[in-house]
From TrEMBL:
Designated gene of the protein: TPHA0E01380
Signal peptide: none
Low complexity bias locations: 52-64, 76-86, 226-246, 288-299
Protein name from the UniProt record: RNB domain-containing protein
Domain of life, per lineage: Eukaryota
Length: 1219
């Protein structure tokens, strides 16, 4: 790509895949991350000129344009419509962290005007704290993406580059425009939801008094700066963090959590404050206020808010005015999307544009991410990929040199290597050749001197040992990660059940698009984060022995979620004696919220909400997960007694006429299926009385008939949005009294909404469908477990018919005549809905659950079509997006390498092929790869999404919604009300805007529910593995290799439902060789060194994660193998009796592991080792690792971190080798 940086002519690339999106996207050019693009200069200058013009027109304001601050009249709300204040209050933007400083420029009439200074060239920083970025001659950006695609497909010679013409453009459907200035006082800067109102006097509310503040429906949406949450005025909202009371300095009798569990409104607390007090000079990146604990960071970056501050450098660029973003999106100069943080390398991120572009946008580094968080809706300006990539390489080279000086590495990585990733498949030819004959060894590798000395030329190449080239060691193709990167990987990989996967990028496979965030448009309200407190940042702890050189003015909150940045907490808001006794809080969990993030601060500022308790307490860990995922579980609690729910929440009285006017099915043998004891909202009947026909009725509890729309209860249910079902604890959507009243019970008359199918008795094909409001009286209620037993035993003709019906629905859905519900894809199914009956193994599935879920899918699709046909744009639906071409090709390539020619042209072809794989381990492996490729389902309003994107891709259903579980999903309530309005001939009154907001909030809480469930399973599974391995410290089990890389390989253990990565630099290896063509990794082992007790030299250092682990290594591999086979041969569980009882109380199966065939002639350990593929060549001891191979691995639960970590290592096949 050419760098025509001097040409300022605008160029565009074509957008694809979205009729409502921009047809052309502007691409900018810059030389470095410190530059501002022409677009930013233009927009920020325009904003200041508008403010200046407004100031001149406002006679109540007296402004000195030579630098004195603007003083607005607090009571004057009559602003010019063209003025959009970016501040929170009605004052000037002196305290606005996002607005740049005001400086003098000359306008067209040679008058002094407020604007922005910038330079085209040179290294000096401008008034923004950044150099100017110049426009790029870029029709070549689209050409670059096409060239990159052609390179990946191997047809570089044939390119067809199309240039779009100027068209009338519309914004993408996911974009949320600011409301018109005519209706609002001014556009304000982005903020978090409002603060907790902390009562210094504990007041007891009257009995059954409803303390819920009525708020409009739109308060459910992501946080918008123009909303006054909790009834606070702008003036109240604009209080600084300095006025925040500490929960640890409360008056006598005050709750430690500051009444956090008292429900006040739909949004949780934590107000984002746009600026800091300008009451003292500041000289550090983060400082706290002397008197109130607020950091004095002048938001506009100049440090001279009151004339007494020192100038501070802006670390981030100001956000563009939100009032201008809609037009810029329409013009194609910006594109919007949702940001996700790269969990492996958290400084990087990706933005998904929902079909506007054919690939995600790469965001390189924290500066380009510009303070955006995971899940934010952001505006992005596209940049030239070559420029961004060059900047990335420069940053990583600096990082390499820094680490080299610390770790004294002598073996360089080639500059094309991914510094953060030892799971790449591309090896530098030059490096590989230099190590072809002579392995180059690190001095930190123990017991290797004899191998190093045997080859006289090893390590003598001057280019190879240049310390300026790299900071990461290599042995052969084996990468050696820095200690801090190992620590990060242990937590990132160890704290999840499946590995996090991102698109692989390197010099050969660069991203197709790159950009930088220029504004945060929307953010989910009231996000909370659990974590621990420390006096120092992790990178400083080893330097200062965990003690700061002086009393700090801030302490650091380290979130459990690695995608959330470190949060600076003013010392005054920390526990009272935290600074003096910080070590006493090492195992204490807290909950924090973000408050503000000015452009001059590297980290955001926040406040501690509450102290949860000690890490080792299982109840505390579950509370931490729930709060971390925004489930406070306090919506229905009595204000005077938090152990009880409020007594004034009662179902509406059902009138007799309601029962009489509905069709009843009292004569049918209706069976209700209970998922949990407290939730039974689905029932069915099968009637075979008509010859050749079969009537199949599905009945869903009519929950909305007992809940008044927009009542206090309805708004609370909307806030909770969904029930949460963990193995250890459940949080229901509705109060207990409602679940008791609504749930189907034997011989109890209940209101329902029914979908009744008339089926052919032989083929079970659908002939007609009836939908209506009904009354039913179930003749029996059975649990899913009991239903599963009946299916397996084949003891019921009715249940057999039910299974046949489900099979036919499945075959029609995916167009596969051999499909059967007995073979399912539980991971793929979880993309739409999480489990209610939770298993300890995420790969586990019951055939009864498959039957019921397949029937529910059919009912949901029928209802979706009905409401869409009648309501059109207002229909509340659910979709699952089609992966972009880049991701799908990446998936196809991986599956092809496993030996499967998979069909990715359609969802039905994809599902058919996976279900047809006979080997269950191979099928599960392909399912894992597909699962990590797909996004989760999303609710949407039909009129806000292009018709081409309505499809629920992974279920292969054109129109889909959620209707069948109203006792656990609020989205189902919306759909019930829409359907009932059609059945009754009434107009559905809720407007499309509030429906969209509800859909966004439901999406957020739905994802939170799934994440909480997975984390809870991981927590319990880690405890189980720790219990199983107590005698020896580790488990030895068989695993399946899923993917092979140059220095590591991925395995999954189907019996436990986990996928992990085996890192070569944590094994006693001499070197490794990787064949990328055949995907074979050869491990060159040190003989007679046990993997079970081996600890790399750098992991013995003080800054290694191993120092925080409480359960240390105990036994060698032979003892582990012998202990396990003894119990296996005696039919004993590895789990202790006490833990068995705990699992049984949760209705969970006892976990087990996989063993090889035991051969008493060779013993337990050799029975495991006999499964490996190994050989000896001269003095080398080599093991071959190939994909889908079964190998023995060592598994352990690392206990002692905020969340336990599961780690694996390979068993050394040459542990007993003799010379």
């Amino acid at each position: 790509m050419s760098n025509a940086g001097s040409n300022n002519k605008s160029y565009y690339i074509s957008a694809t895949g979205n009729k409502n999106g921009p047809k052309q996207i502007h691409v900018a050019h810059r030389r470095s991350q410190s530059e501002l693009t022409d677009l930013m200069i233009e927009q920020l200058s325009l904003e200041d000129v508008q403010k200046h013009n407004q100031s001149q027109n406002n006679t109540n304001n007296h402004t000195n344009y030579r630098g004195s601050p603007i003083h607005h009249n607090k009571n004057n709300n009559h602003y010019n419509n063209n003025f959009h204040s970016r501040n929170y209050s009605e004052h000037s933007n002196n305290n606005n962290p996002f607005s740049p400083p005001k400086i003098n420029i000359q306008d067209s009439d040679d008058r002094n005007s407020l604007g922005y200074m910038h330079k085209k060239t040179g290294s000096q920083s401008s008034a923004y704290g950044h150099n100017r970025r110049q426009s790029l001659v870029i029709d070549e950006a689209k050409k670059y993406a096409a060239e990159e695609q052609a390179k990946r497909h191997g047809n570089e010679d044939t390119l067809n580059i199309q240039t779009s013409s100027n068209l009338s453009l519309d914004p993408p459907p996911s974009f949320k425009f600011p409301q018109s200035p005519e209706k609002h006082l001014g556009q304000q800067s982005f903020k978090f939801p409002p603060s907790i109102k902390i009562n210094t006097k504990k007041e007891s509310p009257k009995k059954d008094e409803d303390n819920f503040i009525k708020t409009p429906t739109h308060s459910h949406r992501r946080s918008r700066s123009r909303n006054n949450f909790n009834g606070y005025s702008n003036k109240q909202n604009n209080q600084s963090l300095s006025n925040q009371h500490s929960p640890f300095r409360s008056v006598s009798g005050q709750s430690k959590d500051n009444n956090y569990n008292s429900f006040t409104a739909l949004e949780p607390p934590a107000l984002f404050q746009p600026g800091h007090n300008n009451n003292r000079p500041s000289n550090g990146s983060i400082q706290s206020n002397n008197s109130h604990g607020s950091a004095n960071v002048n938001g506009n970056g100049n440090g001279n808010g009151n004339g007494n501050g020192s100038q501070r450098k802006a670390l981030y660029t100001p956000y563009l005015p939100q009032s201008n973003i809609p037009d810029l999106v329409k013009q194609g100069r910006l594109v919007t999307g949702v940001l996700r943080v790269n969990k492996k390398n958290r400084s990087d991120a990706w933005v998904t544009t929902d079909g506007v572009l054919d690939a995600d946008i790469y965001i390189c580094g924290s500066k380009d991410r510009n303070r955006a968080l995971e899940g934010d809706l952001v505006a992005v300006e596209l940049l030239a990929v070559d420029d961004v990539w060059e900047s990335k390489r420069e940053k990583e080279e600096k990082k390499r040199r820094k680490d080299a000086s610390i770790q004294h590495d002598i073996i360089p990585l080639d500059s094309t290597d991914d510094y953060h990733n030892d799971a790449s498949i591309n090896i530098s030819n030059k490096l590989h050749a230099s190590n072809e004959d002579y392995p180059i060894l690190s001095p930190n590798t123990p017991n290797l001197k004899r191998y190093d000395s045997e080859k006289p030329g090893a390590g003598s190449d001057s280019e190879t040992i240049s310390p300026s080239r790299s900071s990461v060691k290599r042995r052969g193709s084996l990468k050696q990660r820095p200690t801090q990167k190992k620590n990060d990987d242990v937590e990132v990989e160890g704290q999840s059940l499946l590995l996090v996967e991102e698109e692989e990028i390197n010099d050969d496979f660069r991203p197709l698009y790159a950009g930088h965030v220029v504004a945060v448009i929307d953010r989910i309200p009231g996000q909370l984060f659990s974590g621990t407190l420390a006096l120092l940042r992790p990178s400083q702890q080893t330097q200062h022995d965990n003690k700061p050189p002086h009393v700090p003015k801030i302490v650091w909150f380290k979130p459990t979620d690695k995608k959330v940045p470190l949060i600076a907490i003013p010392t005054e808001l920390a526990p009272k004696k935290f600074v003096e006794n910080a070590e006493n809080y090492n195992d204490t969990l807290f909950v924090a919220a973000l408050k503000r993030w000015p452009i001059t601060s590297l980290h955001p500022f926040g406040v501690i909400i509450t102290e949860l308790g000690v890490l080792s307490d299982p109840n505390i860990e579950i509370e931490s997960i729930l709060k971390d995922k925004n489930f406070l579980s306090n919506e229905y609690l009595d204000a005077n007694d938090k152990t009880k729910e409020r007594s004034n929440f009662k179902p509406l009285e059902i009138k007799n006429e309601t029962y009489e006017t509905r069709k009843n099915f009292f004569n049918e043998n209706i069976v209700a299926i209970s998922t949990l004891e407290s939730i039974t909202d689905f029932s069915f009947h099968i009637n075979e009385s008509i010859k050749g026909k079969l009537q199949f009725g599905c009945h869903i509890v009519d929950a909305t008939e007992s809940i008044e729309p927009n009542s206090s209860l309805d708004r609370r249910a909307r806030k909770r949005s969904t029930g949460v079902f963990l193995p250890q604890k459940s949080v229901n959507l509705l109060p207990k009294v409602f679940n008791e009243f609504l749930t189907f019970k034997e011989d109890k008359v209940s209101l329902a909404i029914s979908v009744v199918f008339t089926l052919d008795a032989e083929t079970f094909e659908t002939e007609s469908i009836w939908i209506g409001e009904t009354t039913i009286k179930p003749s029996m209620v059975i649990s899913e477990e009991s239903l599963n037993d009946i299916v397996e035993q084949g003891s019921s003709k009715t249940v057999a018919k039910l299974q046949q019906i489900a099979n036919q629905f499945l075959r029609e859905r995916i167009d596969y005549v051999d499909a059967d519900v007995s073979v399912s894809l539980p991971l793929i199914n979880s993309l739409d809905d999480e489990k209610v009956l939770v298993d300890l193994n995420i790969f586990e599935n019951r055939i009864s659950s498959n039957i019921i879920e397949e029937i529910k899918r059919r009912v949901n699709s029928i209802v979706a079509k009905e409401i869409y046909d009648k309501l059109g744009d207002k229909a509340f639906l659910r979709r699952q997006a089609i992966p972009n071409d880049t991701k799908m090709e990446f998936f196809k390539k991986k599956v092809n390498q496993l030996g499967f020619e998979i069909d990715t042209s359609s969802a039905s072809g994809l599902l058919k092929y996976i279900l047809s794989i006979k080997d269950p381990n191979a099928r599960r492996g392909v399912e894992i790869l597909l699962f990590k490729l797909m996004s989760r389902g999303k609710y949407y309003v039909a009129g806000k999404v292009d018709k081409e994107q309505h499809k629920n891709f992974i279920t292969n259903i054109p129109l889909y919604t959620h209707f069948t579980s109203p006792l656990r999903r609020y989205a189902d309530h919306i759909v019930h009300r829409q359907l009932k309005s059609l059945l009754r001939g009434n107009e559905f009154e809720e407007d499309i805007h509030s429906l969209r907001i509800t859909s966004e909030y439901c999406n957020f809480k739905k994802d939170c529910t799934y994440d909480a469930q997975v984390q809870a399973i991981h927590l319990l599974l880690s405890s189980a593995i720790n219990d199983m391995s107590k005698p020896t410290g580790q488990l030895l089990t068989m695993a399946t290799v899923l993917q092979v890389y140059e220095s590591s390989f991925d395995i999954f253990i189907p019996e436990l439902g986990i996928e992990k990565r085996v890192h070569g630099d944590q094994l006693p290896l001499i070197k490794a060789r990787f064949d990328p063509m055949n995907k074979v990794l050869e491990l060159y082992w040190q003989p007679r060194i046990d993997s079970a007790t081996f600890i790399p030299a750098d992991e013995r250092q003080a800054n290694s994660y191993r120092n925080s682990i409480k359960n240390k290594f105990k036994s060698e591999s032979e003892e582990i193998a012998t202990n396990e086979f003894d119990k296996y041969n005696n039919n004993e569980y590895l789990v202790s009796p006490s833990f068995q009882k705990e699992l049984e109380s949760m209705n969970l199966k006892i976990p087990h592991i996989s063993f090889p065939e035991y051969d008493p002639k060779i013993g337990a350990l050799q029975s495991f080792l006999s499964t490996t593929v190994s050989r000896r060549e001269n003095e080398h001891y080599i093991q071959e690792i190939t994909e889908l191979q079964r190998i023995p691995v060592l598994l352990r639960a690392e206990i002692g971190m905020a969340l336990p970590c599961l780690t694996v290592s390979a068993l050394n096949p040459f542990i007993k080798t003799e010379d």
